[in-house]
Amino acid sequence: MLHGGPVAHPVGAAGAALGSRAALDRSIAGATVMSEYQYYEFQAIDRSLTEKEMDELRSYSTRARITPTSFVNHYEWGNFKGDEDAWMFRYFDAFLYLANWGTHEFKVRLPSKFLDLPDVRPYCSRNSLTARKNKDQIVLTFTSQDDENEDWDTGEGILSSLIAIRAELARGDRRVLYVGWLLAVQADELDDEEPEPPVPPGLGQLSASLDALVEFLRIDPDLLRAAAETSAQMSTLSPGRNELMAWLAPLPPAEKDTWLARLFAEDTLSVSAELHRRFVEDHEPGQPSLAPRRTIGEIRRIAEKHAVERKQNAEREAAAEADRRQRKAARERAKRLDTLVGKEQQLWLDVETLVAAKQSKNYVAAVEVLVDLRDLAARSGAGDFETLLQSFRSRHARKATLMDRISKAGL
């Protein structure tokens, strides 16, 4: 969903404003009581908050952890009193929200000169990926809802792993937009007949921050793998120093001086993003794949095929691992029996000594020795084990616990 102009609250399908984050989540989750656990974290990247701004934030919460670059709080029997989008446009560059009923949300803000609504439009949906613009800033919101959420995190530390996505977007990397679109596919927000948006290069080689986002949004790995099949390689994701030096060397001195002056005078994100875009343009087109656009239904069928293959591979690996463990156990068993060869008479005496104590733990040990005797007899071909065992059972028939353990051991 796209929003331009003044910041507004989201509007539900029936046209009624849902208002606060808590109200929206309770609407989704069907909750009728106050929240059990909600985590909010905002981070400022381009600039630090002023004392006045920190005081403004403090008026919303006396218990939040507020620093010149962040606002962090969690709620167990209360709700956030602010407006996330308004805070994003006024104070912060990134935001993470997590609730234990299954809602995960990530927001990122950046100047519209790096990413504008027309760039985002093909990837947006009703809920999974939305965009808002206010003046020269744009805020993207990624929302994942899993009502069957069983494993949930407290949220701490997750946002830091996602921050680099902002710089990637500023450099022209559009992979995160496609990930947001995939989230809508996974959430069944789109029809099977709809075509996919432009496929950016590098979907098969995600950055650490994108990997973290895929995990946070709980994107189906088979769906992502299917989407990446038509994605071109991106060799300039992280150019090395030698590559950069070779690229910079032939540039006119005046142009290099201009870049240096801008590094001192302007914010690092802007200059770094422009340099990276220029480098990419000079080395590779970096355009979305020219392969025929697939429909959502086609991508889903490919994902289902990958899921079957993954399950089969997992079953084969599990069987191979079980076989490996079994063969290892057999080798260790053979080594143990080797140490017992010729000691059969003493082992029978040991069994009698153990059962004479009439203790459960000794019965366990006695049965283990009987198993050793059985396996020794089977390996050597001696035929007296069954006769000796029947005699032993007759002598100790009244020891019900011992007899039960012998039967369970298959003796």
The structural domain count equals: 2
Terminal CA distance reads 70 Å
* Class from secondary-structure proportions: alpha+beta
Radius of gyration: 33 Å
Number of distinct beta strands: 8
How are strands sequenced across the largest beta sheet?
Answer: 1-7-8-6-5-2-4-3
Please trace the helix and strand order, writing H or E for each element. EHEHEEHEEHEEHHHHHHHHHHHHH
Approximate strand percentage: 5-15%
Number of H- or I-type helical stretches: 17
| Largest β-sheet summary | 8 strands, mixed
How would you sum up the global shape?
elongated
| Helix content estimate | 40-55%
Report the mean per-residue pLDDT as an integer. 84
Sequence stretches where pLDDT stays below 50 over 5 or more residues: 5-23, 26-34
Region (Disordered): 307-330
Folded structure, characterized:
- A hairpin with a 2-residue loop joins β7 (129-134) and β8.
- Residues 5-23 and 26-34 have low confidence and may be disordered.
- The chain is built from 17 helices and eight strands.
- The protein has helices spanning 21-29, 51-58, 84-90, 117-120, 158-162, 164-170, 175-186, 208-217, 221-228, 241-248, 253-265, 268-283, 296-340, 344-356, 360-380, 385-395, 400-408, and strands spanning 2-3, 38-43, 65-67, 70-75, 94-99, 103-111, 129-134, 137-145.
- It is elongated.
- Strands 1-7-8-6-5-2-4-3 form an eight-stranded mixed sheet, sandwiched between helices.
- 50% of the residues lie in helices and 11% in strands.
- It is α+β, with helices and mostly antiparallel strands and 411 residues long.
- α14 runs antiparallel to α15.
- Residues 307-330 are annotated as: Disordered.
